[in-house]
Specification:
Structural class: alpha/beta
Mean pLDDT: 90
Largest sheet: 5 strands, mixed
Low-confidence stretches: none
Distance between the termini: 23 Å
Radius of gyration: 14 Å
Helix content: 10-25%
Strand order of the largest sheet: 3-7-6-4-5
Number of strands: 7
Number of helices: 3
Order of helices and strands: HEEEHEHEEE
């Protein structure tokens, strides 16, 4: 949010931001009552489109794009993948280390 509310939430819950302009936050512990969605990170890797395409072939996956050069529609076309499934996510985001793909599972709190 342009009003800075995301930064206030990060401070209030002692969260670390992935990158200055990417509104994704991390924590080493599960925080109850936090506004927003919670994901458990399985892996964080540099982006290798060929490897990702091969890994998700034939599987349903949910895609998220945050502060990344391709939006979710463009990513879906690039991977020729089926969107869906209950909890498996690939999050494409700019981090302080550069562009990364985060494999995550959605946790329903």
């Amino acid at each position: 949010m342009k009003s800075g509310l995301n930064d206030l939430i990060g401070i209030r819950y002692d969260l670390k931001k992935l990158e200055q302009h990417t509104n994704l936050y991390t924590s080493d512990k599960k925080i109850l009552g936090i506004p927003g969605k919670i994901y458990k990170v399985k892996s964080v890797e540099s982006i290798n489109y060929k490897k990702i395409r091969k890994a998700i072939k034939g599987h349903q996956i949910n895609l998220i794009s945050k502060n990344f050069q391709l939006n979710t529609d463009e990513l879906q076309k690039k991977f020729k993948c089926t969107i869906g499934g209950k909890s498996d996510y690939l999050i494409f985001a700019k981090t302080i280390e550069g562009n990364r793909v985060i494999e995550a599972i959605r946790i329903v709190s």
